[in-house]
Amino acid sequence: MTVLERGSTIVVRGWRVGDLLTEAGLRPVFNGIAGGFVLDADRLPDVVAALEYRNLPVAIVPQVPGGPGDAA
Fold first, then answer.
1. Is 17 exposed, middle or buried (0-12, 13-18, 19+ CB in 10 A)?
2. Kind of pairing, strands 36-40 and 9-13?
3. Spatial distance between the Cα atoms of 20 and 36, rounded to a whole number of angstroms
4. What pLDDT, on the 0 to 100 scale, is given for residue 67?
5. End-to-end CA distance of the chain
6. pLDDT above 70: residue 53
7. 56: region left, alpha or beta (phi > 0 left; psi from -120 to 50 alpha)
8. Average pLDDT of span 40-67
9. C-alpha to C-alpha distance for 6 and 24, rounded to whole angstroms
10. pTM: predicted TM-score of the whole model, two decimal places
11. Each residue of 18-49: b (16+ CB within 10 Å) or e?
């Protein structure tokens, strides 16, 4: 599973990740432009905990200053 940090939001990508996050009590919203499920960045610890609880590998990709999605 991949978690992309994008300012005030995170984008989570991976097989069945929407179902897994919903089962964990989160409310992910699919965004076709972002190519994954979008949540508030404050939920990052909950997302990581939910995925690691299921023994799924999690890669967190921080936002690169000046990269795509950077508002600066």
1. buried
2. antiparallel
3. 13
4. 62
5. 27
6. yes
7. beta
8. 91
9. 22
10. 0.85
11. bebbeeeebebeeeeebebbbbeeebbeebbe
